[in-house]
Amino acid sequence: MWLRHEGALAAAIADELGADPRDPRIHLFAHFVLESWSVVDVSDDPLVVLDATFALLEPGWLAVEPAPGE
């Protein structure tokens, strides 16, 4: 259900970063974030799962996000 919003989330991320909205890394990030809902939704502690999701995604994302001032 959430994945139908992948394109919109990717476009919003690209717009925020001033990045090319066709960048597959942005679409993959949006996909993984939205897909995490399937685990968060059934967890006894959804906040822990959500934190774990971003702890895994953040290191890879730093390679895409421009450094401050760029």
Automatic annotation (TrEMBL):
Identification of the protein by name: Tetracyclin repressor-like C-terminal domain-containing protein
Organism: Microbacterium sorbitolivorans
